[in-house]
Structures are given as structure tokens and as C-alpha cells.
Amino acid sequence: xxxxxxxxxxxxxxxxxxxxxxxxxxxxxxxxxxxxxxxxxxxxxxxxxxxxxxxxxxxxxxxxxxxxxxxxxxxxxxxxxxxxxxxxxxxxxxxxxxxxxx
Length: 102
Description:
The structure is a single chain. About 55% of the residues lie in helices and about 5% in strands. By secondary structure, the chain is mainly α. A two-stranded antiparallel sheet has the order 1-2. β1 and β2 form a beta hairpin.
């Protein structure tokens, strides 16, 4: 691996996706293989808008809770960005190869 940055584990990648993409997606290795730079950035921006502490009153949530959620979203985004290689996620070795295109 170039750059010496270790690839996060599948569990770490899936946990970060859960934070960043929320419950709207079925997370799997196939999903991880489909993530691209633009989709990651778009999900990050959308999620930050949803949980920004400035929305505490509108959402009826404590501002501190949203602050912690915002930090978790940022950490998840950073982890996933560090795992990007050539515009797509680098996955740990030893995974089954992706299925051939139809």
C-alpha cells in the first residue's frame, strides 16, 4: 500500500458509513465498493445539515447532543476519506472479489 496509511477494517468502514449515511442504506461489502469521492462528499454535507447544532431548537434536541453527533459525522468522513484510493474505497485484503458485471 502506498503512503503507508493502513486500510481500516471492514467493521470500521461499515460503522463510519452508518454514521455518515444513516439508516437509509443497507451496508455491505458491495456498498463499500460502490462509494466514490463525490457520493461521500455529498453524504457528508447532507448529514451535517441534518445534525448541525444550530438546528437544535427546530429538532427539539439538546445542542450538546447535536454537537457530539456532528463530531461523529466529521470523524466518520475523515476515516472514509483516508481510505479512498484513486476515487474509491480501499478495502482490506482477503475479501472475495467483486462479482463480474452483467
